[in-house]
Structure formats: C-alpha cells, structure tokens
Amino acid sequence: MNDSSFIPYSRPFIEQPAMVKKIEAHYQFMDQRRSLREFSDKSVDKAVIEKLIMAASTAPSGAHKQPWTFCAVSNPEIKKQIRIAAEEEEYENYHGRMSEDWLDDLRPFGTDWHKEFLEIAPWLIVVFKKVYDLNDGEKTKNYYVNESVGLASGFLLSAIHEAGLVALTHTPSPMNFLIKILNRPVNEKPFLLIPVGYPKDDATVPDLTRKSLGEVSVFFE
After folding, report:
1. 54 CB contacts (<8 Å, ≥6 apart)?
2. What are the C-alpha distances in Å from 210 to residues 33, 47, 99, 206?
3. What is the rounded distance in angstroms from the CA atom of residue 198 to the CA atom of residue 45?
4. Helix 145-162 vs helix 16-30: crossing angle, to nearest 10
5. Contact (CB, 8 A) for 129 and 68
6. pLDDT confidence of 143, banded at 50, 70, 90?
7. Cα separation, 67 vs 131, whole angstroms
8. Mind listing the pLDDT tens digit for each residue in 82-140?
C-alpha cells in the first residue's frame, strides 16, 4: 500500500513459548480483578486518571471515530448530586421496575438502592457515547458506537486494575440525569458510571467462580 497516510507497523516479536508464559501471567493477573462496592476515600492523583482515560482511548472504534467522552468527577458537590439522582432511580428499580427474577439474581451480592460509594470513591468516571458528532453545528455519522464505547470501557477497566485501583461498573438505569448534571451536549448519551479508587481496608467481595474455558468457548480445528 503506497498511501502516504500509512506508516510502518512494528512491535517486538515474541516466540511461542514466551508468548504462552506472558499471556498466562496476564490471565492470572486479570483473574484477580473484581468489581468492588466498598471504597476508601483515599485520594488518587488527577495524573493517574488522565493516563487511565488515555489508555481507554487506545481502543479500536468504527472508522476510528472514537465516539466517547470520559467525564472525570472529583468535585464533592457534583458527586453528591449524582448520588442523589442515582439513588432516586435505583429506589424505583428495586421497588417495582426490576422483575422478581432480576432481584433474585442480585440477592447473593447484597445490593440495594443505597449507593454511598458514589460519594466515597475519590473519582467517578462517567463514560458517554457520542451517537453522532457535531462539527460547527453539523451532524456527522459515527459507526458501531455501542461496540466502540464498550471496547473503550473494557480497556479502561483493565487499565484501572493495572494501576492497582478498583472500580465498579454502575448503571443506574435510566441515566439521563447525568446529561443534566454534567451539562453534556445533545449528541452524548450516558453509557457507564464507574467509581474509581482504592479499596476500603476491610473490603470484601462475593466468593465467585468464573466460567471455565469449556463454558465460554468453542474451538473449530
């Protein structure tokens, strides 16, 4: 390909035996990742959050449109507003919106409509998806928006774990209150609300077992 907009791709070559060891170590590391609801209020430097967002932004996206905005919130008053609004929606969810099956599935996790972690965690990263872009008031298309933003969110969670921090993927549906509180433009819709910080000293998590390789994969050889 002779297009001058392309540049050579290069990265270190890894032999197969080293590759197996490398990915096994990565798997063991990622298998330690857990969603957490018990946060410490210990501060996290803004520089760390900036790098986490940049790591998330290395994710692939449809036509390289990068249709995401990461709103990082540490302001206590804004976090309080978010908690109040989120708890209003969650109260409705736990008292009528959710089916009995859904509530039964959540029961082992001990969750309810109280979301104090939204104020305790030092940072909230709110992921917005750009349904379309606005350039000088004109709409331009984005492609595979949900898939792209989902990938970026996965990259973000991986980076948070790599940094030695913990996170929770919180989805207080509906989440439109985030548009108003954070004053986002009409082309952005909330995708995830992610508290980020250190775990509380005596934090606990459910004793879970992840599905085996045979349960999550099918090989065609």
Report:
1. none
2. 11, 33, 25, 12
3. 12
4. 90
5. yes
6. very high
7. 7
8. 999 999 999 998 998 989 999 899 988 889 999 999 999 999 999 999 999 998 889 99
Both tokens of 37, joined, read 């609801």
- Rounded Cα distance between 72 and 196, Å, is 10
CB burial string 59-92: b at 16+ within 10 A, e below: bebbeebbbbbbbbbeeeeebebbbebbbebbee
If you count them, how many residues does the chain have?
221
Average pLDDT, the chain: 95
Q: What's the CA gap between 197 and 49, in Å, rounded?
A: 10
Token pair for 84: 């109040």
Q: Encode the chain in three state secondary structure.
A: CCCCCCCCCCCCCCCHHHHHHHHHHHHHHHCCCCECCCECCCCCCHHHHHHHHHHHCCCCCECCCCCEEEEEECCHHHHHHHHHHHHHHHHHHHHHHCCHHHHHHHHHHCCCCCCCHHHHCCEEEEEEEECEEEECCEEEECECHHHHHHHHHHHHHHHHHHCCCEECCECCCCCCHHHHHCCCCCCEEEEEEEEEECECCCCCCCCCCCCCHHHHCCCCC
85 Cβ contact list (under 8 Å, min separation 6): 172, 177, 178, 181
Residue 192's pLDDT is what?
97
pTM of the predicted structure, to 2 decimals: 0.94
